[in-house]
Write a structure and sequence with these properties.
- The structure holds two protein chains of two kinds.
- Chain A has a single domain (about 55-345), classed as ABC transporter involved in vitamin B12 uptake, BtuC (Orthogonal Bundle), CATH 1.10.3470.
- Chain A is built from 14 helices and four strands.
- Chain A has helices at about 30-55, 60-85, 95-115, 120-145, 150-170, 180-185, 185-190, 200-215, 220-230, 230-235, 240-265, 275-285, 300-320, 325-340, and strands at about 175, 190-195, 195, 270.
- Chain A has a two-stranded antiparallel ribbon with strand order 1-4. In chain A, strands 2-3 form a two-stranded antiparallel sheet.
- Chain B is α/β, with parallel strands linked by helices.
- Chain B has two domains: about 5-240, 3-Layer(aba) Sandwich (Rossmann fold), CATH 3.40.50.300; about 245-490, P-loop containing nucleotide triphosphate hydrolases (Rossmann fold), CATH 3.40.50.300.
- In chain B, the strands form five sheets. A six-stranded mixed sheet of chain B has the order 6-9-10-3-11-12, sandwiched between helices. Chain B has a six-stranded mixed sheet with strand order 18-19-20-15-21-22, sandwiched between helices.
- In chain B, helix 4 crosses helix 5.
- The longest helix of chain B is centred in the middle third of the chain and has 16 residues, at about 175-190.
- Chain B is globular and about 70 Å long.
- The model of chain B has no long low-confidence stretch (mean pLDDT about 90).
- The chains are: A mainly alpha, B alpha/beta.
- The interface between A and B is large, with 46 and 69 residues.
């Protein structure tokens, strides 16, 4: 609508302010920065509150404990972040983790019986977990893109299928890892490197890889473009289906990785393994400032979101102001507050 | 029953931008006015003020001599003024009768009285000559029928002034003729009609007086009989047309760059053949629904093709998707800028480089190289923006369009297809884009321009392909290009 003066066209290019300072990307406005700092700010405030309430909170051991517990959901959230930014959703990740855990334990036990080497059984079992995650993700991606079914529906369906299969495989009980295998495998959860537990290292690695992939590669840009407007991306020569399928595969692999870290913790899988993980993962992504409708999101925010949610339950565990039984309620309140603060942006 | 409207020094600001400047004129009852002007001239804004969708920043709106400030469209409707939008406002899942009575349902006691509403709806549908069952769902109607329902809805609310914004944009000629007959009938019944259209032949045919707006000002008014279409066009643009377009130079003799033979896109285009030479601007004319956009979507693999061969630079090619086409040197700018052309929520930079990210990935994306590409595009395409870090949504229509054109040129295509390249942009940006298109041709690219604006095709193109009902009716050379010929082939009255 803005009326523009008629100018002697392109021979004399219009003076645009933006044309100056070539190559120097401008810092984003303070408002935008405040938005991306929001989750970090929330986490800092929460930690200050934790320190004030219980001297045991600000200890190295407690910090490591919280981060280790965050690792499973955190790793899945990184994958979930890609799916949500691309305009999708995956409700099945908790069930998927349970089925992968059960299948991998069965596979490791069988491989151990076959080859007698517990180490080989664990390594092959780990590959199997990643392959299974990728396969489930691929199935989701294909059904969603080629089958043209809403992601919500597809993954609602597989949410039931995965958990039912685990229940069937375990006969309603638990599938337990053999002792010898367990002995080789348990350092993956209980071991530490430079004083930091292995799951935290893996979590950090996945987060850094995710951030690089999202912000510094073509693939990440395409995911954002598709989530922002799929039609525009399609017309702009983006291979939309391929990018979307790959996002579900990535998430499946993340679930595989998280499950591998989780198995040695209890050494078994049961119908209650991974229950409600999907909601925690989605909550972490949303609390981290990613729009549920897609197009915009941050890995750092997601990581912070995941940590923030587990710090809440940690504080409730350490203090007695609010009952631990109300953990989910407090998390729910936090999610709604975050959504409320972000609503003005859209 | 009829009403008199006076715009008294109406101004309208959107933020710091003034889009209407002291507009003054009167509308007499029972006449058909053609409101014409370029995109961005302020026609729609003015009509939205009249129909209660916007309020004037300054000035007064006098209805029958009384100053009115409509709070919303319902208030305007109560005064008998109804705007029929280009995109219809029917609730698709409701029936025709439910739509007509939406918001003022008839009741018997506590419950809806469907029988009475259906009967009353039948009455107004008869009035507009639409023979559908009032219990039909809106989604089951064709576009022309939906429009008739909109008019019926307006009549049922006792409209005394109807504003129609591009009413024939999606109608076939037969349907359009029915609409014209209805307009005449309404006028005889004392209804005032404001007819907004870019199709000057329709304006000439339907209206009794034209009102011209330009750049937010009322420019002039004249009895329709006293001006030719050529004069209308000159009044709209505000300058001689020869000044809008760069002089045409014939393209150099060369074998065709893109050669399409017998391309068929089921349901849309049949057996279409054409060729584009290097340095040539080839136009595509036709009515809405003639299959032009769908033809090119089919060419790029966005729609199913059932037959046809494509040669690029003498080599047989097949595009499975736009990615394929872009890699081989053909890109396409969609007519639907907001829906298919630009990511409004992404930054200018991200929009610009999306089709050519390979160039900026080594292997990590190099943001400063992307930024350099944006700076270059801003200078080269004359994109006016105060701040280069804004989102595409914050640019004006004309600058968005320049960005979109810059984007499809990033992969350095040999052939570029521009679908409605000047839709929704103002006169100044239009002229910039015309000069830009000429520059592209001068660089030796093949340029295809799909357009509904005949003046544009005539002023810009070396040759024009005219399509009708999915088939090529004629290919006209520069010397054969005239509005009459184009319309004759496009409507099948040649």
């Amino acid at each position: 609508m803005q009326p523009e003066r008629i100018e002697p066209a392109l021979a004399v290019p219009a003076v645009a302010l933006g044309a100056k300072g070539a190559g120097a990307p401008r810092a984003p406005g303070w408002k935008q920065r405040l938005h991306s700092l929001g989750p970090v700010l929330g986490l800092v405030l929460l930690c200050l509150a934790g320190m004030a309430l219980n001297p045991g909170f600000a200890t190295w051991d407690n910090a490591m404990n919280v981060l280790t517990r965050t690792a499973f959901i955190g790793i899945i959230s990184v994958g979930m972040c890609f799916v949500i930014i691309g305009g999708g959703i995956d409700l099945s990740v908790g069930s998927m983790a349970a089925l992968i855990a059960g299948s991998v334990i069965l596979a490791m036990n069988a491989l151990h019986a076959q080859f007698a080497s517990p180490l080989l059984a664990v390594l092959l079992g780990a590959l199997f977990a990643l392959a299974l995650g990728a396969l489930f993700g691929l199935a989701h991606g294909l059904l969603i893109t080629k089958g043209r079914i809403e992601p919500f529906i597809v993954t609602l369906g597989t949410l039931g299928i995965f958990r039912a299969y685990l229940t069937y495989l375990s006969n309603g009980g638990a599938i337990t890892l053999g002792d010898e295998v367990s002995a080789v495998y348990s350092p993956v959860y209980y071991g530490a490197l430079l004083g930091v537990p292995i799951p935290i290292w893996v979590f950090a690695g996945v987060a850094v890889a995710g951030a690089l992939l999202l912000n510094r590669t073509r693939y990440g840009r395409y995911v954002r473009a598709i989530g922002s407007n799929e039609q525009v991306a399609r017309f702009a020569a983006v291979a939309v289906d391929r990018v979307k399928i790959l996002s579900y595969v990535l998430l499946g692999v993340c679930v595989g990785v998280a499950t591998l870290l989780y198995i040695p913790r209890l050494g078994s899988a049961s119908p209650s393994t991974g229950l409600l993980w999907e909601l925690e993962a989605i909550a972490a992504v949303i609390v981290g400032g990613t729009a549920l409708k897609g197009g915009d999101g941050r890995i750092v925010g997601t990581v912070v979101g995941a940590i923030l949610l587990s710090v809440i339950s940690n504080i409730l565990n350490l203090t007695s102001i609010i009952s631990v039984y109300l953990n989910a309620a407090v998390q729910g309140v936090v999610i709604i507050i975050v959504a409320f603060l972000q609503r003005s942006r859209r | 029953m009829s009403l008199r409207v006076r715009f008294d020094d109406i101004s309208k600001d959107f933020g710091s931008v003034r889009v209407l400047h002291g507009v003054c004129f009167d509308l007499e009852p029972g006449r058909v006015y053609g409101l014409i002007g370029e995109n961005g001239a302020g026609k729609s804004t003015l009509m939205k003020i009249l129909a209660g969708f916007e309020t004037a920043s300054e000035g007064a709106l006098l209805i029958d001599g009384k100053a009115e400030h409509f709070a919303d469209s319902r208030a305007a409707e109560a005064a008998g003024i109804v705007l029929i939008h280009q995109e219809f406002n029917l609730a698709e899942d409701l029936t025709v009768a439910e739509n007509i009575f939406l918001g003022r349902e008839l009741r018997r006691g506590l419950f809806l009285d469907d029988a009475a509403m259906n009967a009353a709806a039948r009455g107004v549908l008869d009035e507009v000559g639409l023979k559908v069952d009032p219990a039909t769902k809106a989604r089951d109607l064709i576009v022309a029928e939906k429009q008739m329902v909109e008019i019926a809805k307006a009549l049922s609310r006792h409209a005394r002034l109807l504003i129609m914004d591009e009413p024939t944009a999606t109608l076939t000629p037969t349907e359009a003729h029915r609409l014209f007959a209805l307009i005449e009938q309404l006028r005889e019944g004392g209804v005032t009609i404001v007819y907004i259209s870019h199709k000057l032949d329709e304006v000439k045919r339907v209206t009794s007086e034209i009102i011209v707006m330009r750049d937010g000002h009322f420019t002039t008014r004249a009895p329709t009989d006293s001006v030719t279409r050529q004069q209308m066009a000159t009044l709209m643009v505000g300058r001689e047309l020869s000044d809008m377009f760069p002089p045409k130079h014939p393209p150099p003799e060369a074998p065709p760059l893109l050669q399409v033979q017998n391309l068929t896109v089921p349901g849309w285009a049949r057996d279409v053949s054409f060729e584009v030479h290097p340095g040539e601007i080839l136009g595509f004319a036709g009515l809405v629904g003639a299959g032009r956009t769908e033809l090119f979507e089919g060419l790029l693999g966005l729609r199913k093709r059932s037959a046809g061969t494509v040669e690029l630079g003498g080599r047989k090619v097949e595009f499975r998707n736009p990615r394929d086409a872009a890699r081989q040197g053909v890109t396409y700018l969609s007519e639907d800028r907001k829906g298919k052309g630009l990511h409004l929520t992404l930054s200018l930079q991200e929009n610009l480089t999306l089709m050519d990210l390979d160039r900026h990935a080594r292997p990590w994306l190099d943001h400063s190289s992307e930024r350099a590409a944006l700076d270059q595009a801003i200078a080269e395409f004359g994109i006016r923006t105060g701040d280069a870090t804004v989102n595409a949504a914050q640019l004006s229509g004309g600058n968005q369009q320049k960005l979109a054109i810059a984007k499809v040129l990033q992969p350095q295509p040999r052939v570029v297809v521009l679908d409605e390249p000047t839709r929704g942009v103002d006169v100044g940006a239009k002229r910039d884009i015309y000069f830009l298109i000429h520059k592209l041709a001068a660089q030796g690219r093949g340029v295809v321009v799909v357009s509904s604006e005949l003046i544009e095709l005539i002023g810009l193109c070396h040759r024009v392909v005219v399509m009708r009902g999915g088939s090529v009716m004629a290919v006209l050379g520069t010397e054969q290009l005239s509005e009459e010929t184009l319309i004759a082939y496009a409507t099948g009255t040649h």
